[in-house]
Automatic annotation (TrEMBL):
Gene3D superfamilies associated with the record: TonB-dependent receptor, beta-barrel domain (2.40.170.20)
The entry's keywords: Cell outer membrane, Membrane, Receptor
Protein name stated in the entry: TonB-dependent receptor
SUPFAM superfamilies: Porins (SSF56935)
Residues forming coiled coils: none
Subcellular location: Cell outer membrane
Outer membrane protein beta-barrel domain span: 286-729
Predominant subcellular localization, coarse grouping: membrane
Natural source organism: Chryseobacterium phosphatilyticum
InterPro entries, per database record: Beta-barrel_TonB_sf (IPR036942), OMP_b-brl_3 (IPR041700)
């Protein structure tokens, strides 16, 4: 094409010169025409970041590239957020990634940015996407080339936090004729260190707890994907992914005071192993030359987490109510999921697109929790806290979308997703429930391209949020004998209604206004429930005590339980203003955004849905009232500066700030993080030195005060400052086309494990 343009230019310049001589006309030559490609633009229901045209896309990895993408942010190096609020679901070439969250982040960090063509940000996804609540979609579009050959990446990184945490990974891709494939393997070890400060009470009493948690982890993960092109219209693919995590000798050590008096010390030792295996078989056939196609998937997921713990409480004063206690606990979780789906994409000659599909998911979870308590010097089963919970869920989904361009300036997309859910939960020999519900989830997007500088769009979507499977498992984790966390098998799905108005100016500046309504809302974290229970007094061996007349001696104890449950409704209004722009001939690239939020949380928890008092026991729970109206803001400033004309030295300076924010469980304190990185590119090698959260300000503090004066305060300091050095080596043909990414039928279930 360049040769043809050059020949045409020479021809017409000669023709003009001849005409100039012949007709004695004065013609002014045009020296040059500079056309700059749009890096960031609005297209239909998504915002497109053209990475190939961006100056920051050289010599980095995909995860860092996503952090620099407009509307996307990350403050912990482990998760990605859209507009500072919505969790991000990753798709690659319009196919949802088939791996768990931690393995996915490692894969993104190992993928060279040079492989990426563009990044699409969909803040409110259509009916065809398997997402929940307010989740958004990031679709990564890879560069395409049909060259045969192979390539790969080797990466080593050493991270220094409270402990030293090394990790390494490798990936390999190949293409030969009709066969293509890729594989990856990652391994690493890290130890999480957290320091806790807990306090609760009212004007009449106060409890205080201080301690730490050390959680060592060893992780191995990997997988492969093989694709065979049967002919030009048909393809068959198979993928497998696995992850194994071992966390042995995790220690939670808490010392407790009551009304300023040292009472006891609780130590919890925990060993846990997690295994995750997933398989997917994919078939795709193109049905015409316009791009219509039929896609089908069959998937299987097996998830197994084994956790055993030994909890001891040691008395630290002579109070007779303080006595040594201990318990053993086993909390296994097994998930089996079988899934299938069929999608048909139909494109018409008039430019319209139809998408219709059907999906089915069957999930069976088995959680056989066992607990033994110390009694008469021996451990005996505690029937009250032994729960064999079996949960079965069947979801049938049908969805339909229609998209077309109505005029030269107006385009639209309308769709709906209908889901039928049938589920049963059974706590063997105790209680059970059955939940059957249907949901019609409509979707609408209208886009108005006012002119080349202005674009306006409106989107409406309805979604639900089903409880994660581990949230349903009714197991406890103890801080003290009367202070623990517990999941809730009776929690129900929440309903979300999302609206969004987006305006873009000159493909560089944007404003996003969104409004979300939630019914049957559940807190983003557990709610602190306080109260007192009265029952028979037990001696140090766990036997009931009697007075001289043969009457039971009763005693009253105060408790604090962190319970996950539904509470009511919330409303959230967000305004995000952002800018993505390069300065001084692309030497300095900026990605700035500010988010302003107004939230209303309203509801109450009047009883503990997980509590089952025994014989002769009574319980009084202080009502937990949620009536919050709150303004908050967050700020993200990302800067990349090219330090050399050879484009081999780069400096990154990023800053995040979040103001105090009132939520269901209390007021979250100010958080901020200053990150600095220096990158050097040497041929196929990239060396990066980073400091994340330089001033250790990215930890959580929560203050919760109820109308009756009861309070609950938590500080969780997780040593957020991290210093790391990473070395990446890319080998082989870097323009090799990736194997066809395949959508797995059980993607929606993976996120709930």
């Amino acid at each position: 094409m360049k040769t043809q343009i050059l020949i045409a230019a020479l021809f017409f310049s000669g023709f003009i010169t001849a005409q100039q001589k012949k007709d004695s006309l004065k013609i002014h030559a045009i020296d040059a025409v500079n056309i700059k490609k749009q890096v960031f633009k609005k297209q239909g229901d998504r915002l497109v970041y053209d990475v190939a045209s961006s100056p920051i896309a050289k010599g980095t990895n995909t995860f860092n590239l996503l952090k620099q993408t407009p509307m996307i942010s990350s403050i912990d190096g482990k998760t990605l957020k859209i507009l500072g609020k919505s969790d991000a679901i990753i798709y690659i070439n319009n196919k949802k990634t088939n791996m768990d969250a931690e393995a996915l982040i490692e894969m993104l960090k190992a993928t060279p940015s040079e492989d990426i063509q563009k990044i699409e940000v969909i803040t409110v996804p259509g009916s065809e996407f398997q997402v929940e609540s307010t989740e958004g979609v990031i679709n990564i579009v890879m560069k395409k080339s049909k060259n045969n050959g192979y390539n790969g990446t080797l990466k080593m990184q050493n991270e220094q936090g409270y402990y030293n945490n090394p990790n390494a990974g490798a990936s390999f891709n190949f293409r030969q004729g009709k066969w293509s494939g890729n594989s990856n393997f990652r391994t690493g070890s890290w130890t999480e260190r957290q320091k806790y400060s807990l306090s609760n009470g009212d004007s009449t009493f106060r409890n205080e707890s201080y301690g730490f948690n050390n959680d060592p982890n060893n992780n191995y993960s990997g997988g492969f994907n093989v694709d065979y092109e049967i002919n030009k219209k048909q393809s068959l693919g198979f993928s497998y992914n696995m992850r194994y995590n071992k966390s042995f000798n995790s220690i939670l050590d808490i010392t407790n005071w009551q009304d300023g008096v040292l009472t006891n010390r609780t130590v919890n030792h925990e060993d846990a192993q997690t295994r995750n295996h997933s398989f997917n078989l994919n078939y795709e056939i193109k049905t015409d030359s316009l791009g219509s196609k039929l896609t089908s998937n069959i998937s299987y997921l097996w998830f197994n987490r084994d956790k055993v713990s030994f909890n001891e409480s040691f008395p630290l004063n002579s109070n007779p109510n303080n006595k040594y206690s201990a318990l053993h606990q086993s909390v296994p979780q097994i998930i089996n999921n079988y899934a299938a789906n069929i999608d048909y994409l139909k494109k018409t000659a008039k430019g319209a697109t139809w998408l219709m599909g059907i999906s089915y998911n069957h999930t069976n979870t088995d959680n056989d929790t066992k607990q033994d308590k110390l009694q008469n010097g021996e451990f005996v089963p505690d029937s009250k806290q032994t729960n064999h919970f079996i949960y079965k869920e069947n979801i049938l989904g049908i969805y339909l979308n229609y998209e077309r361009k109505l005029t030269e300036k107006i385009s639209g997309k309308i769709g709906a997703r209908y889901e039928m859910t049938r589920s049963t939960g059974d706590i063997v020999d105790k209680t059970g429930f059955e939940r059957n519900y249907n949901n019609l989830l409509p979707y609408l997007n209208l886009n108005y391209a006012i002119n080349s500088d202005h674009n306006l769009s409106y989107t409406f979507s309805s979604r639900i949020r089903r409880p994660r499977f581990w949230e349903l498992n009714p197991s406890r984790t103890y801080f003290t004998p009367t202070n623990y966390t517990q999941n809730n098998p009776f929690i129900v799905a929440s309903k979300f209604y999302n609206q969004e108005l987006n305006y873009m100016y000159k493909n560089a500046y944007y404003a996003n206004l969104s409004f979300t309504m939630v019914e049957d809302a559940s807190a983003s974290d557990m709610l602190p429930l306080q109260g007192k229970s009265t029952g028979p007094k037990l001696d140090e061996n766990g036997n009931i005590m009697y007075d001289a007349d043969g009457n039971m001696i009763m005693e009253t104890t105060k408790f604090l339980r962190y319970i996950r449950t539904n509470y009511g409704k919330n409303r959230e209004l967000n305004l995000t203003l952002g800018m993505n722009k390069s300065w001084f001939k692309d030497i300095w690239t900026t990605n700035y955004s500010v988010n302003l939020k107004y939230s209303i949380y309203k509801g109450a928890v009047l009883e503990d849905p997980t509590s089952r008092p025994g014989p002769f026991e009574t319980e009084e729970l202080e009502p937990y009232i949620i009536d919050v109206k709150n303004y908050s803001m967050s700020l993200t400033l990302n800067n990349v500066v090219r330090l050399s004309s050879k484009k081999d030295w780069y400096l990154g300076v990023n800053y995040f700030f979040a103001s105090r924010e009132a939520m269901e469980g209390g007021v979250v304190g100010v958080r901020q993080s200053l990150d600095i990185n220096l990158k050097k590119i040497i041929g196929d090698w990239t060396i990066v030195a980073e400091v994340n959260d330089l001033f250790n300000q990215g930890f959580y503090r929560v203050e919760g005060i109820q109308p009756n004066g009861r309070y609950n305060n938590i500080t969780n300091f997780n040593y957020p400052r991290l210093i790391s050095i990473g070395v990446t080596y890319n080998f082989g043909n870097q323009k090799l086309k990736k194997a066809r990414e395949m959508k797995s039928a059980n993607d929606a279930v993976k996120s709930r494990t």
